[in-house]
Amino acid sequence: MKGFAMLGIGKVGWIEKEAPACGPLDALVKPLAVSPCTSDIHTVWEGAIGDRHDMILGHEAVGEVVEVGALVKDFKPGDKVIVPAITPDWGSLEAQAGYSMHSGGMLAGWKFSNFKDGVFGELFHVNEADANLAHLPEGVDMAAAVMLSDMVPTGFHGVELADVQFGDDVCVIGIGPVGLMAVAGAALRGAANLYAVGSRPNCVALAKEYGATEVLNYRDGDIVEQILERTHGKGVDRVVIAGGNAEDTFVQAIRMLKPGGRIGSVNYLGSGDYVRIPRVEWGCGMGHKVIASGLMPGGRLRMEKLAALLATGRVDPGKMLTHRFQGFEHMEEALLLMKDKPKDLIKPVVLI
After folding, report:
1. Using the 8-state DSSP alphabet, how is residue 225 labeled?
2. Cα dist. 43→57, 189, 284 in Å?
3. DSSP 293
4. pLDDT, tens digit (0-9, with 9 covering 90-100), for 224-269
5. What band does 50 get if pLDDT is binned at 50, 70 and 90?
6. What angle do CA 321, 325, 327 make, to 5 degrees?
């Protein structure tokens, strides 16, 4: 089969390789709509998870089931399905402990374009199909549904990690696709003053549409000072980190956070060896300022619940789709958009 792959660090291209085999619990799926992710950029051009050779990229897809294993009960060839970016091994000890995304080891629930070929091929393999696929609801736009693979659950998980409660003052740092979904999730969770940090005009407008009460531009001055000015020096109850860099962003988050507050970070730190935590503002280690970071949960139940939010109009991730391509041959063009990030880009999708 044909696939668009990482050939090595800094190199991508089309390759031919053997189609995957289908195990008794598994499914083979052909993609119908896919989207490249900033994670793919970190993987290829920063070597964030190490060198990979001839590994098909991509982890965001809606597809059609082609084949299922003999023990699969709930899916059959021809079914349209949402495929989560994270496909855990549900019988693992880590899953039983409540951390399915780390089944088999750190981040090992993230299989596509990490440990095995991803979804940018003519066919891809899904382990434990009954537990890791979700039916695409009737009437739901396929392109919008691709955002349920990663962007929506990752943004929402940042909100969960921050434990946003009714009436909380919240700051979301970074309003790319994940940050925009964090804004939407915080609004659904009942945030009161909801500050978003970003500068791109289209992202700013969409952040407000998703529920941000104010957008702070880091180009206008230190965002910590801007937050403290608006909160009369008290800071915010919760911070979601969905962008920025390891060197500075945690410093800013700690400084703007109230004692007893909580940070939820879902930012992929693609480079550097350490993050910095400001000692004094962290209460010399005793400020009850909690940092929670994590990889989004995967699996069928998560996808079904998020699909229900889309189907009922509670959230519309399709508004983030700024670039639509028709045809598998546009895969490289869409990926390079995520690398180069032109001003009008939020998220591209390729319909196949």
Report:
1. H
2. 9, 32, 35
3. E
4. 999 999 999 999 999 999 998 877 899 999 999 999 999 999 999 8
5. confident
6. 145
Domains held by the chain: number: 2
- Compute the distance between CA of residue 145 and CA of residue 143 in angstroms, rounded to an integer: 5
Cα pseudo-dihedral 38, 141, 240, 197, rounded to 10: 80
Q: Give residue for tokens 């490249």.
A: 36
pLDDT digits (tens, 9 = 90+) for 136-169: 999 999 999 999 999 999 999 999 999 999 999 9
341 sits in the region (left: phi over 0; alpha: psi -120 to 50; else beta) called left
Q: What is the mean pLDDT of residues 25-49?
A: 94
Residue-number span of the structural domain to which 181 is assigned: 156-293
β-bridge mates for residue 8, sequence order: 11
Identity of the amino acid at 51: D
Name the residue among 192, 187, 231, 189 with its Cα closest to residue 210: 187
Same-domain pairing of 25 and 119: yes
Which token pair is 312? 């009922």
Q: Are residues 276 and 229 in the same domain?
A: yes
Token representation of residue 85: 């970016």
Residue whose tokens read 């109009």: 313
Amino acid 342: pLDDT: 93
What lies within 8 Å, CB to CB, of 173 at 6+ separation is 179, 197, 223, 239, 240, 241, 242, 243, 244, 249, 252, 253
Residues 169 and 128 in one domain: no
Would you place residue 281 in the very low, low, confident or very high pLDDT band (cuts 50, 70, 90)?
very high
Instruction: Name the DSSP letter for residue 112.
Output: B
Q: Alpha carbon of 126 to those of 74, 268, 335: distances in Å?
A: 14, 23, 22
Region for residue 47 given its phi and psi (left: phi exceeds 0; alpha: psi -120 to 50; beta: otherwise): left
CATH number at residue 306: 3.90.180.10
Could you say which of 275, 293, 311 is where a domain stops?
293
Quote the DSSP letter at residue 109: T
Which residues share a beta bridge with 321?
A: 347
